[in-house]
Amino acid sequence: MIDESCVHCGLCLSSCPTYLVTGLETESPRGRVWLLSQHSSGVDIGHTGLKHLDDCLDCRACEEVCPAHIPVGHMVNQFRIASSTGVARSMVKPLRYFFATRRGRRRFKRLLNWSRYRVVKRTMSWFPGWIPPDALALASGLPQQTVETARPVMDPVKEGRVVMLFKGCVMDTVYGKTNQNAHDLLHIAGARVVKPELQTCCGALLYHSGDTEILRDLVLENLAAFEESGSEDVAVTAGGCSAFMKEYRHLFSPEDPIYDRVVRFAEAVKDVSDVLVQLGLPLLPSNGQRISMHDACHLAHAQGIRQSPRTLLRGAGYDLVEMPDSDRCCGAAGTYNLTHPEISRTLLGYKISDIPQDIDAVALGNPGCQLQIAAGLNKQGRRVPVRHTVDLLWDAYQGVNDGRG
Ligand code: SF4
Ligand code: SF4
């Protein structure tokens, strides 16, 4: 898909992270639209041109500001997938191995638990060919394993909205406790929460790496889980997953026999913060804690979600301290931090410098950003916790069960 409507206004330049890092026109949205149009007219854009397209983070920041509504990130992504270019293809095998099946996700969980040990990290760093150094650096952002304390027994909710909690693959293996907290918060907000076992990865990481074949199987499994659960909403704790599942409909033709089911599912998908705002949580007095929000690209740019997490945090008694350019990409971008380590590291450096000094935590709503920013703060020796909005809310609301139901 090539869009010819670019008016070369340049309004997109300052919002593009790769332009910010390199200062190159060819690393800007406008430059990428030009490269795509050259390629579609049969001009050989060469290895360098392909690299500039491949460097796009698909952060969608340009799409929000473009007066001609050109979906640059989406166009570049479709080009990479259709033309089988892009270093992200090297991630297809490991992603399939770990995330396409339940067994794979169990393996991933074991690997994660193992990689938390410092002695293992040190040993692995002696054999740099085994695990890429950037993957090792990311492992420093993994949450510590904690012993789960007994949860309060909640009154069953007998009436109210039925909400399916979508677990996700990275989210559930790395931040499973966040999903549990989301479940209990939705319950406190009055929802009848269901968390079907039969659900799977949304497919975003695989699809964006160029593996389009497996998507249908994953979508069918998620459709079945949703339909059997009888839910009105699908609440999602990972911004990358909700953004991708809302766009499922664009990946299937209207002639496809499952198209109507896909549309119904996509319409039910919501970020958990939007569901909680809609249902309503009790207002709490100030707790004096200062929180700064990082807006994940796939929440802010792809879904326009900025206010719901802030509304919830304020309502739970937190004081918000805004960070500059809170919606500029942190460089995580799916597997970008592994496939494009240099640009990713530079963007992470900008993000860490922007995080205010006098805060109690950074809040966010996407696991990739959480891992990336936590690793960046660790590297600089800054002891600021990086927390999912849902976990901060759970800190404030645990023990609160207003007895609805
Ligand atoms: S999607 Fe992001 S990285 Fe790609 S061109 Fe747009 S702003 Fe730049
Ligand atoms: S903002 Fe849109 S129309 Fe303007 S230069 Fe960028 S891509 Fe082209």
Order of helices and strands: HHHHHHHHHEHHEHHEHHEHEHHEHHEHEH
Lateral strand order in the biggest sheet: 2-1-3-4
Mind telling me which CATH architecture of the domain at 282-397 this is? 3-Layer(aba) Sandwich
- Total helical elements: 22
Roughly how many Å apart are the termini?
Answer: 50 Å
Principal-axes geometry comes out as: globular
Radius of gyration of CA atoms, rounded to a whole number: 21 Å
Proportion of helical residues: 40-55%
Strand content: 5-15%
CATH C-level of the domain at 282-397: Alpha Beta
Function: Component of a complex that catalyzes the oxidation of glycolate to glyoxylate.
Enzyme class: oxidoreductase
EC number: 1.1.99.14
GO molecular function: 4 iron, 4 sulfur cluster binding; glycolate dehydrogenase activity; metal ion binding
Record keyword descriptors for this entry.
405 residues, alpha/beta, 4-stranded parallel sheet, 22 helices, 8 strands, globular, binds iron/sulfur cluster, 4 iron, 4 sulfur cluster binding, transport, glycolate dehydrogenase activity, electron transport, Glycolate oxidase iron-sulfur subunit
